[in-house]
Amino acid sequence: MGIAVALPAIVGASGIPAALPWVAGALAVAGGLARIMALDSVQRLLPPWLRTEPAAPRTASDTGAADGRA
């Protein structure tokens, strides 16, 4: 699974053209696996130590907009 998530970066760093049919297929499968693993229903099936936490929504105070630093 780790390689599936890192595959786009590996392909980009290696200089292999992403338009090659086998590379494009592998990238499509890797993207599909990453998307499936991010589903809430799959996350609930995982043990707690493997779950990812959802990103907290950003507020104006997180961006600095509230104090004029935006």
Spatial separation of the terminal alpha carbons: 38 Å
The secondary structure category is: mainly alpha
Q: Write down the secondary-structure element order.
A: HHHH
Output the number of helix runs.
4
Helix content: 55-70%
> How many strands, which pairing sense, and closed or not: the largest β-sheet?
none
- Computed Rg: 18 Å
How big a fraction of the residues is strand? under 5%
Residue stretches low in confidence (pLDDT < 50, at least 5 long) are none
Mean pLDDT: 76
Rough outline: extended
Counting DSSP E segments of at least 2 residues, the number of strands comes to 0
Structure keywords:
single chain; 70 residues; mainly alpha
Give a verbal description of the structure.
The mean pLDDT is 76. The chain has 70 residues and is mainly α. It has four helices and no strands. Helix 1 packs antiparallel against helix 2. The protein starts with a helix and ends in a 7-residue tail after the last helix.
Summarize the structure.
With 70 residues, the chain is mainly α. It has helices at residues 2-14, 21-37, 40-45, 60-63.
Please render the helix and strand layout as text.
Layout: H1 2-14, H2 21-37, H3 40-45, H4 60-63
